Amino acid sequence: MAAAIVAAAEPCDQDTIIEIGPGHGILTGSLAEKAGRVIAVEIDKSIAEELRQKFASAGNVTVVQADFMQFPLPPEPCPSSLKFVSNLPYYIATAILQKILPLSCWQSAVVMVQLEVAQRIASGAGTREYGYMSLFCQYFSDVKLLFKVSPGCFSPPPKVTSAVLKFENRRPDPPPAQLFPLIKRAFHQRRKTILNAISNNIEAPKEAVLEALQSVEIDPKSRPETLTLESYLRLTSILGKYIIDNTQNSKQLNNK
Fold first, then answer.
1. What is the 3-state secondary structure (H, E, C) of the chain?
2. What pTM was estimated for this model as a whole?
3. Which of 44, 66, 132, 180 is the most buried (most CB within 10 A)?
4. Please, what's the largest Cα pairwise distance for the chain?
5. Do 2-169 and 179-252 agree at the fold level?
6. Kind of pairing, strands 82-87 and 37-42?
7. CB neighbour list of residue 202: distance below 8 Å, 6 or more residues apart
8. Taking the domain 179-252, which CATH number applies?
9. pLDDT at 49
10. Nearest CA to 84 among 255, 70, 92, 99?
11. Shortest CA distance to 58 belongs to which of 35, 86, 92, 87?
């Protein structure tokens, strides 16, 4: 399994690889054999020290003891070929992806997450799993679910199946400021029609939402999960002015 993850990352001597949560370095050594530089970011102080000793003779491995969510990105100077590799902690996987994917300078990311999360991220419009994180990740990258990882591959085995995803940076233009707030509001009530889901969650008259949907040829009776990214972009260009993105409302909305 570790060999398959390293192979998927396709490390080469021009790459700088940031490994998020390296643990005891199972992937680190294999990455260092092929990559130009490996930056291993480990939150646990004792494990970070263990890694420093383990890779003391490796001139291309830097161990940083830090919470990755506080780790400054991109690294300075920004490498020409930056990749991420990680067995992401399940409880914070989506937050980490939301941190790294909007960056412009990375090339690819190979990460392991819970299977349910992987399916949600890689799914397309019209599927049950499709939602906010699908659209967020696919705006910034091309995503592939590479393979599943059974609990028996770990010791001790977790209670869930995992999966490995590969993201390749699309390097899009920065998204409209209200795109993801609009998508988040639409999926807050995903069982409702797109007309009601949006009308109930933005500061706009229902008639204005209906007019916007009709102007971009979206059936008001369709469900949020049937709309493509392009459809949400078109809606944002019309309805973005009605979205007030305050912290209290954001905390109440579901980011699935």
1. CHHHHHHHHCCCCCCEEEEECCCCCCCHHHHHHHCCEEEEEECCHHHHHHHHHHCCCCCCEEEEECCHHHCCCCCCCCCCCEEEEEECCHHHHHHHHHHHCCCCCEEEEEEEEEHHHHHHHHCCCCCCCCCHHHHHHHHHEEEEEEEEECHHHCCCCCCCCEEEEEEEECCCCCCCCCHHHHHHHHHHCCCCCHHHHHHCCCCCCHHHHHHHHHHCCCCCCCCHHHCCHHHHHHHHHHHHHHCCCCHHHHHHCCCC
2. 0.90
3. 132
4. 67
5. no
6. unpaired
7. 182, 185, 209, 239, 242, 243, 244
8. 1.10.8.100
9. 98
10. 99
11. 35
- Inter-axis angle of helices 179-188 and 132-140, nearest 10: 160
- Which residues fall within 8 angstroms of residue 32, CB to CB, at 6 or more apart? 38, 55, 58, 60, 61
What is the pLDDT at residue 247?
37
Q: Report the alpha-carbon distance of residue 125 to residue 134 in Å, rounded.
A: 9
Residue 16 has a CB neighbour count (10 Å cut-off) of 23
**Ranges of the chain with pLDDT below 70:** 245-256
- At 82, the amino acid letter reads L
Domain boundaries, the chain: 2-169, 179-252
CATH class of 2-169: alpha beta
Residue corresponding to tokens 């990258």: 141
pLDDT of residue 60: 96
